[in-house]
Fold each of these.
Amino acid sequence: MHHTTAISPSVDSTIVLRVLRALAQHPGLTRAELATRADTSRPTVSAALRMLEDRGFLEQRVEADERNIGRPPMRVFLAGSAASSVGLEITRTELHAGMFNIAGHVLSQVRAPVHDFDDASSLLDDAAMLVRKLLDRHLRATAYVLGVGVAIAAPIDHEGHVVQDVSPTRWTRVNLAQELSERLGLPVSVENDANAAALAEHRFGAGRSCTDLLYLRLSAGVGAGLILGNRIYRGASGIAGEIGHLTIDPRGALCGCGGRGCLETLTSPLVLEQQLRTVRRAPVEDGWMSDGDRHVRRLLADAGDAVGSAIATAINLLDPGRVVIGGHLAEAGVVFFDAIDAAIVRDAIPSAAARARVVPGSLGAHAPILGAATALISRELEVLVGG
Ligand SMILES: [Zn+2]
């Protein structure tokens, strides 16, 4: 475990923090752009950059495609080797951990099965073992490890506690961050899985350069992550984004939450596969979504219609500029996405519907662990500079 003394600045630490934040959110800014974003003078930015460069936090370079400009601008990046963090995703079936450098590049990933999701204590033992395996692998390769960011499919409050679940589990009231931190001797932060994935897509993926973003995670569970004004929006108690339990069909199937016809009951891949098995009277292979026969097309069109209807409600309420689709259904293809667009045009306010673009996520299955690792990095950088 590494302890770093806080950067003791000749420069105001809040300026250093603003510079770090700006570089984490917008890699490749010029000094002039940094001064604007950090709301300070260019000499002050230069002093902050010198200090960070002395500590190995920065890389400055001219971009290849700008070399033929008369005086190409020097662009500033966080140095990938300066520090790293671990992202850990806990689902009902699997633990997935990845080591990331401070620039957001994955160094390696490991997975392990979950034997009993409801036994929080032994699951956290397994999680700690998996993270240790990853840390051992990179003992020499990374400068130091800032900590572990966890993504879990449960609402998380402002203090990082699991607040409650739509289906009862023993995770409620578990202080996940503290329990894992004690097992590992490292700082741990906790984030809802959809929020974590939203953060990753916003910073590195299909939601880049978007101020207001709705991220939808469509897997066995359905959740949304909201980025409003470049920040995660949690709501008063951490429940914001439980779009999976929006009622779409009041006469639909009963849901685990006690409602009927929730979005989740209409889009869960498990439900869709069950319907396909029934009509085909045969087992359904992985990858059935790309089969393209009439049954699959109908299932995906109907699921897209339900998703589009839910998105239309969110558009009318929040007016996000972009909607990013992640999870298993992100791979569903053009039939699914066309049905989403058609439902939005039908159900949303025309001007907002015209502006909002719905796109598949570009980071795939590692969006949640990247987002969780990134959230941890942001938090620990603040600790490091005493912000
Ligand atoms: Zn429900």
Amino acid sequence: MSSTNEPVIDPKEVLEGIVEWIEIESPSHDAVAVNRMVDKVEGQFRDLGLSIERTPGRDGWGDVLTARTPWGEGKGVLVLAHLDTVHPIGTIERELKVRQEGDAVFGPGIYDMKAGGYIAYYALRHLVRQGKKTRLPVTFMFIPEEEVGSPTSRAMIENAARGHKYCLVMEPGRDGDRVVTSRKGVGRFVMTVTGRASHAGAKHEDGRSAILEMARQILRIEGRTDYERGITVNVGLIQGGTGVNVIPAACTAEIDLRVPDPAMAEEMEHWFLNLEPIGADVEVKVEGGMNRPPYRKDAGISALFEKAQAIYRELGMELKDVPLTGGGSDGNFTAALGIPTLDGLGADGKGAHAAYEQIYYSSLKPRTYLCARLLETLE
Ligand SMILES: [Zn+2]
């Protein structure tokens, strides 16, 4: 028997499949576009013999697609990927034309994270082609609105995670054969300041400036950034005032918080929600809380990471993990439930969300191999 008949992981074929996904542009806010992407992926998994469950989108978001292997018993492997991107329709004809320059392949959402989603699909297809099955049942879940914080799919992700033994997240890989084993938690808050409007010339003394109060609050809030403890705070949006000659009665600010562990999440959430006015005769209200809990590298995650490292060594390569990253993902939800979660399993590249978004062609083969062998061997 010639070994040429053995199915191989063909990076050219992997790339062709990724490009088909890229050509279906799917910005989070365009549910019709995202669902065109869902149609494509649903058909591909159906053809592999998986059972499909499609949950209609809510609140204007796209559908959640779940595909399950018909084989395997007990708690299995949950594979997470999102099908939405941050790039508006038409990006593919303008700043992010699909093209290859040396090892770099460009396209909207190619790195974050259509390459990763496709790699997971191809990995399973590779096993099926070889007549192999995974030891554990595998559930693939495709999320339509991850880029806006998974507002409608979060509960589904958490429910699914509780019924699984491991979670693999196909988010972008990190430079030089790195994956993600921890992420900071993400909090979002909105501060509203209410003052008192007045004529800025005739009745200045009667006014209470909401913008002045907000300015003082911002200095206090931004002062909580503490790089040593790993806490960062960013007032990213601010809105207030009605005219240059009016003492402003209202001002709102939106705040992003990142914290490395649950204790700090609780500490900071408590601090934000109890902020008091600094000036006289003004009201301050804060709403919000933690949006993604911290994802910490515990013993279960370390053990899963070691399995991945052993697989990578079969290729003569060394898999590493990145130091605690500030970017959140759906992996935060599953890891916080205590499900061993390995993230950043997608293609290596750079420029997530940017006009130079790209993957490295040379990473497709080892990353697909890693995913296929994890699916095959996890038990
Ligand atoms: Zn992503």
Amino acid sequence: MKAIAINGTSNSGKTTVCEVIIKGLRERGYTVGSVKEIYSPDFALDPDLSEDTGRHRASGSQLVTARALHETDLLYQVKLPIEEILRHYDHDFVILEGVADCNCPRIITAHGLDEVKERLDGRVVATSGVLANEGSAELLGLPVFNALENPAALVDFVEERAFEPLPNFDPECCSQCGYTCRELAGRIARQEAQRADCVLDSQAIELVINGVSIPMVPFVQSILTNALVGVVQELDGYKKHSTIEVRLRR
Ligand code: SF4
């Protein structure tokens, strides 16, 4: 699953850019999901506690599902980390509107240069939105895409530059690639490194919980591998270098 984030101020064209990318990728046959960050602290899909789902929430249910004929809404009662949200997605691409804390490439939408500078970091790969109406092809060394006049160029770019988000571990837990996760994401975004440079891609042990693969920092991989092999190698049927599968049902 590849991702790209679209960040910018209000009314700078974020949603329009997302719409163009989503539509363009769908037309090219990809499966596409999206995430919309909501900054209003009062936002809730079912704010009325007298509604049925609101009554579930008021009673203390920590995950309420509203299941209708053509829609299913999972209503968590907390703000989830983006890594956890993305575990729900198995799409070819996920477009993240307003999400700033994902270790993936970013496109900045803005009204002008100052707004781009405010949001500039190593993960930014392009600009778009209202400022593209000025007609420049490049700003601060970044390409400028006019999503409405040339949607195909923007979709081509996303197709080429989006990548699977890196995890977001503390540097004390992992710096095996020689950088922090955020720094490596920036280097990949700038095409100075490869997604495969994250060593977790080549991990020898995989932890799957309820069908979802959970990334583990190298020392946790080592602890789990050593504990597992230490026990399993005493059993009949163990062969060196075997692939070991353990299923735990609780
Ligand atoms: S190897 Fe992967 S998990 Fe470790 S710091 Fe680098 S990007 Fe993060």
